[in-house]
Amino acid sequence: MQITPAEVAETMAMVTKQNLDIRTITLGLNLRGCTHEDVDVVASKVYDRMTSAAERLVPTAEQLEREFGIPIVNKRISVTPIAEVAAATSAHDLSPIALAMDRAAKEVGVDFVGGFSALVQKGASAADHKLMDSIPEALSCTDFVCSSVNLGSTRAGINMDAAFKMAGIIKRCAELTADRECIGAGKLVVFCNAVEDNPFMAGAFHGSGEADEVINVGVSGPGVVRAVLADMPKDADLTEISEAIKATAFKITRAGELMAREASRRLGYAQGILDLSLAPTPARGDSVANILEEIGVGTCGGPGTTAALALLNDAVKKGGVMASSSVGGLSGAFIPVSEDAGMIEAAEAGALSIEKLEAMTCVCSVGLDMIAVPGDTSVETILGIIADECAIGMINNKTTAVRLIPAIGKKPGDTLNFGGLLGYAPVMPVNQHAGSVFAQRGGRIPAPLNSLKN
């Protein structure tokens, strides 16, 4: 489908007035050729592979920004899950690989690297356990490395032993980086039904069905959608609202399609997916919460919020999929509290609770994201939150995730200030009635009946 001059002009207006941007160009890299029994050799191979393959990524993205006038906020790399790359390694500590990934990121100038990851939805190998055990040290001693662990799927059920282990690791990551606003936990996410072509952090990794090098693009534009809805008549019905969002999502996705084509062509790498996710920023007006309020909800978190979010997420997907044959990743609406000015305000006002956010994750793209909880929150409570969120994903055959940040030494009403796109997070109260028996049972929650598709 040709990109027309009219589309270009309209896109420029979205950029200058409504915060449209390409949120990320992410280079997915296959690292399976980096295996070795010596962890230092693996680290050296990983560094060489990343720096050679990504050498032109940032200059190319910057050239595209200048030529087309569309900001590209982040340039990122995702790699093969390191637990797979390190399967032959005898070392128990895999943090040297994370350090090599971090050095490579700094060398080529990217913002984040994802893939210090393991997929343990049905069981964990020795390498998976080594990877999980290495996460706290890896995230505390690096700046740009992100980690993810897939704990469940509709096909496999939920690995509760791994979930409990990861609850403790989340707490440990926060403790090791308590002097840096507990950012270690902010670079770690656990999933159910993780996708293998996600360009967004902290959950990006390069899946096993992918080519050696792939360009995946994430495009965002909550401010554009909000502006369109703000101009609609107050008596417009919800069908009209949905149609307006669909049309806007189509236009936003076309901008991303153009950039994805050009980036993959110039770099000589395969064009992967285009992820149209309304990813908010702390900038005023660039908020998913504000979109829900434009739809008609009084304050985000109030009654009607989940229904409005369902409408938004569905319309975004329908509009986006008509604009590109390669829509993938997560594609929908994100609800990261610390990164959304409207959600921060709603949380501070008491309108938005963790329980309401959990309900919202039933209909949005991912899950509980960038939520600060009191530093004394127990591991058993964190496990319960993870299990609840994974159950939503497993039963509904959708991706769900948890990125909680235990705010060490802080209580509800305090804040963690990350700066930049990560914004700041008000510490939200948590239901502390999890008990201890459920967390300690372990085992696997079986896959649901609807997993039997064959």
UniProtKB/TrEMBL annotation:
Listed CDD domains: RNR_PFL_like_DUF711
Domain of life: Bacteria
Signal peptide region: none
InterPro entries named in the record: UPF0210
PANTHER family documented for this protein: UPF0210 PROTEIN MJ1665, UPF0210 PROTEIN SPR0218
Family: Belongs to the UPF0210 family.
Oligomeric form and interacting partners: Homodimer.
Protein name: UPF0210 protein JI75_07370
The organism of origin for this protein: Berryella intestinalis
